[in-house]
Design brief:
Elements: H1 5-9, E1 41-44, H2 76-90, E2 95-99, H3 109-122, E3 129-135, H4 142-150, E4 154-158, H5 163-166, H6 179-191, E5 196-202, H7 210-221, E6 225-230, H8 253-270, E7 276-277, H9 278-287, E8 304-307, E9 312-314, E10 325-328, H10 334-338, H11 341-352, H12 356-359, H13 364-367, H14 390-399, H15 401-412, H16 419-437, H17 452-455
Parallel strand pairs: 1-2, 1-8, 2-3, 3-4, 4-5, 5-6, 6-7
Antiparallel strand pairs: 8-9, 9-10
Helix pairs in contact: 2-3, 8-14, 9-15
The protein binds iron/sulfur cluster (3 copies).
One iron/sulfur cluster is lined by residues 357-358, 361, 363-364, 367, 369-370, 387, 390, 393-394.
Length: 457
């Protein structure tokens, strides 16, 4: 079977930005050749930071402080301008209109019906459009799902695992659990054949239950696309990217590595080509020599900006703060803001600010120092800017190296990466047969260099 890399890494899914409610569809990057060769993608927050939940790890709720007295509702003029400007920027290319929060469904269905009207008004004939929405799922009912189905919305649903793990930090404003409501949304999405992705945080509560979480998504939720997002929550009152301590809800660096490795081991045995996990797709792209499919492991970033309810544009969802304000799309064309020097520099800084230990790291090609928002630790030689998750990232990329090399080689031969499962199973069976025959004083067949009795007790 012909299996080009694009079909592996460019399935529609939520991208790898690490905000809890982020959504960006990988194949939706908007080319803006008319201004610069800089592709970009906008995520719009029609309710700003306002949400019907009060998840404990949510740093975004504090962003309300940026707009004192605001009603936090995107008005008609901003709505139409956003849609028109994105469509214009796309030219003849396909368009993505992406909604996220806070909680975008709080705008009500009429807001989204209106957005479809504006799309019809401004879209050139023959140009495809994809609507996406990231939601906590609590308000989704039959009417919403009929609408999503009719307009082929791709839905990103936030879910952290089975009941106890989901409810550990995700709750409504009064502290009540919402798991049942989210699972009801899953059920209705299946009924209405709405395509959805799961966006799961990896936090202190669920990180030691990796395979349980993964199997729950695969076997009980019926998800095919899963994005894992580490919670690295700065312990401060501002909600800005500052300070160098994290809350107790944050995942530990090594714990994060163990989480990814354990899920990878399950996936590589059974699910390649069937279940798509953002980190695994991105890593395969890196091993195959293609650009990373997600911004956190790309060498540079800055292509995914965020639009506030009033038309304010910021460099990235993680950096909605005055320092990273680009301008307002009602006052300056979106395309100019996206191609501005300030935004360009923001994206290049990801690469240019890497500490030496990253630049010399053997897995740099796959890791690229991960997201700048997590780079607040000291390197072993006392420099600043090491990623908090470094130990886990290094362990993960080292752990997956061999299967990734095999899959990259399969891709080069235009074969399906899924063949790796059979290859590894055969190797495993051979090794087990050799182990069964090995004498206690023989060199261990696993290649450890130790005697069998020492290696396997
Ligand atoms: S659903 Fe939770 S994490 Fe997402 S914006 Fe609302 S409170 Fe924050
Ligand atoms: S700072 Fe860069 S890498 Fe991190 S989420 Fe934003 S765009 Fe992605
Ligand atoms: S694994 Fe650590 S040292 Fe290597 S590139 Fe990533 S963050 Fe830097």
């Amino acid at each position: 079977m012909d299996y080009p890399i694009s079909s592996v890494v460019q399935q529609p899914r939520i991208c790898g930005r690490e905000f809890i409610c982020a959504i960006s569809i990988k194949n939706s990057v908007v080319p803006v050749d008319s201004v610069a060769d800089t592709p970009f993608h906008i995520m719009a927050k029609p309710t700003g930071a306002v949400c019907n939940l009060g998840c404990q790890y949510c740093f975004f709720l504090k962003k309300e402080n940026l707009y004192p007295g605001s009603n936090f509702r995107m008005g008609d003029a901003v709505l139409e301008s956003y849609i028109r400007q994105v469509i214009e920027a796309c030219g003849e290319q396909s368009v993505t209109i992406a909604w996220q929060g806070g909680e975008p469904t709080l705008m009500g269905l009429d807001f989204f019906r209106k957005s479809i009207e504006y799309e019809r008004k401004h879209l050139k004939s023959g140009v495809a459009i994809q609507n996406t929405i990231q939601t906590n799922g609590v308000l989704l009912d039959e009417e919403w799902l009929r609408f999503f189905h009719e307009h082929q919305f791709l839905v990103g649903l936030s879910l952290d695992g089975p009941r106890e793990l989901h409810d550990a930090y995700r709750m409504d404003k009064t502290g009540r659990p919402v798991f049942d409501k989210v699972m009801r949304a899953v059920q209705v999405m299946h009924q209405h054949k709405v395509e959805f992705n799961i966006l799961a945080t990896v936090n202190a509560a669920n990180a030691d239950h990796s395979v349980e979480v993964y199997k729950f998504f695969r076997d009980e939720v019926g998800a095919r696309f899963i994005q894992f997002i580490p919670i690295v929550e700065r312990d401060n009152e501002t909600g800005f990217v500052e300070g160098n301590t994290v809350t107790e809800r944050s995942v530990g660096p090594e714990q994060y590595g163990r989480f990814l490795c354990a899920i990878f081991d399950e996936w590589i045995q059974k699910d390649v080509g069937r279940i798509f996990v953002n980190h695994f797709d991105a890593a395969l792209a890196s091993w195959a020599g293609a650009p990373s499919a997600i911004c956190t492991t790309a060498s540079t970033c800055g292509f995914a900006m965020v639009l506030e309810h009033n038309g304010d544009l910021y460099s990235c969802d993680h950096f909605v703060e005055p320092k990273h304000y680009l301008g307002n799309i009602m006052e300056q064309p979106l395309i100019e803001l996206a191609a501005s020097d300030k935004q360009h520099r923001f994206g290049l800084d990801k690469r240019d600010a890497l500490p030496r230990c990253c630049r010399e790291c053997v897995v740099l090609f796959a890791c690229n120092g991960e997201c700048p928002k997590n780079r607040f630790c000291e390197t072993p030689d006392g420099a600043t800017g090491l990623n908090y998750l470094c130990a886990g990232l290094k362990a993960f990329f080292t752990h997956i190296a061999r299967p990734m090399k095999l899959m990259a080689e399969l891709l080069k031969q235009r074969r399906a990466p899924a063949e790796v499962m059979q290859m590894l199973a055969v190797e495993d069976a051979r090794l087990k047969a050799k182990l069964a025959k090995a004498g206690r004083n023989d060199p261990c067949p696993c290649g450890s260099g130790l005697k069998f009795k020492r290696c396997h007790g």
